[in-house]
């Protein structure tokens, strides 16, 4: 449990600082025109505790149960274990994750249900993409007592990858925002110099589209479709 708690602590740190862009200290600091969110210590404590006391014991018990499945051939055994893991355990743990997340946030039962319904499909589909192949390797080659560590290592790696692409996207967003500011200034200068002529708006529109695209991508990375709490919870708890 201590190892699992440590992995969750590390994963949450990567999620908060790398994916969500949080910083230690006051959230008065600004990144351009956007407030930089403050490090959420309560979330760190929550996920570390959940990882060590809830998800790790559940996952350990499940892996032990699935390991008891024995069919006539190794291939059939692997297929049966994988099917059970992805079709029973996967939906269960995604629901538990988002449900417990809502409860810990102090939401009402109706709000918790809404949260689960909103995030479930996206989280489950992505978990299949990440942990389907992981579990094939896990069940086929990894001893039982190392399987949970493999899952959590993959989850940590997923968060590190999200952190990397988020930082790349932030650089793209910064360049796009600078291009937009230059395009708007250039358009204003042309309009002032030639008030009788119609000034083309195409450059500004292209720059605005680039900014919107980068902002949308950042929200997908940080939000329920792949980053932040999802990276720590469902991708570490499987």
Q: DSSP helix count?
A: 8
What is the string of SSEs from the N terminus onward? HEEHHHHHHH
Distance between the termini: 14 Å
Structural category:
mainly alpha
If you average the pLDDT, what whole number results? 79
Low-confidence stretches: 224-238
Q: Reading side by side through the largest sheet, how are the strands ordered?
A: 1-2
Give the C-alpha Rg.
23 Å
Main β sheet profile: 2 strands, antiparallel
Tell me the overall shape. Answer: elongated
Query: How many beta-strand elements?
Result: 2
The percent range for strand residues is: under 5%
Task: Give the tally of structural domains.
Answer: 1
The helix content, as a percent range, equals over 70%
InterPro entries: Mpv17_PMP22
Pfam family, one: Mpv17_PMP22
Family: Belongs to the peroxisomal membrane protein PXMP2/4 family.
Membrane topology: Multi-pass membrane protein
Model description:
With 238 residues, the protein is mostly helical. The protein has one domain (2-237). The chain is 79% helix and 2% strand. The protein has a two-stranded antiparallel sheet. A hairpin with a 2-residue loop joins β1 and β2 (34-35). α1 crosses α2 and α4 crosses α5 (144-193). Residues 218-238 are annotated as: Disordered. InterPro entries: Mpv17_PMP22. It is found in: Membrane.
Brief summary:
With 238 residues, this protein is mainly α. The chain has helices at 2-19, 41-66, 74-104, 109-141, 144-193, 202-222, 229-232, 234-237; strands spanning 30-31, 34-35. It has one domain.
């Amino acid at each position: 449990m201590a190892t699992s708690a440590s992995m969750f602590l590390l994963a949450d740190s990567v999620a908060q600082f790398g994916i969500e862009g949080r910083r230690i200290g006051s959230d008065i600091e600004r990144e351009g025109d956007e407030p930089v969110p403050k490090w959420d210590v309560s979330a760190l404590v929550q996920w570390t505790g959940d990882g060590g006391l809830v998800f790790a014991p559940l996952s350990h018990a499940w892996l032990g149960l699935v390991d008891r499945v024995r069919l006539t051939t190794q291939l059939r055994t692997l297929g049966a274990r994988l099917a059970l893991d992805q079709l029973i355990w996967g939906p269960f743990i995604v629901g538990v994750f988002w449900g417990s997340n809502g409860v810990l946030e102090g939401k009402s039962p109706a709000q918790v249900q809404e949260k689960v319904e909103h995030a479930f499909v996206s989280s489950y589909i992505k978990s299949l993409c990440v942990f389907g192949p992981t579990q094939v390797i896990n069940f086929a080659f990894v001893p039982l007592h190392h399987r949970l560590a493999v899952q959590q290592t993959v989850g940590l790696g997923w968060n590190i990858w999200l952190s990397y692409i988020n930082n790349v996207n932030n650089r793209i967003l910064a360049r796009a925002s600078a291009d937009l500011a230059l395009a708007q200034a250039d358009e204003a200068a042309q309009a002032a110099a030639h008030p009788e002529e119609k000034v083309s708006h195409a450059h500004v529109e292209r720059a605005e589209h680039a900014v919107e695209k980068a902002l949308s991508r950042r929200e997908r990375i940080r939000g329920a479709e792949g980053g932040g709490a999802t990276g720590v919870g469902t991708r570490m708890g499987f």
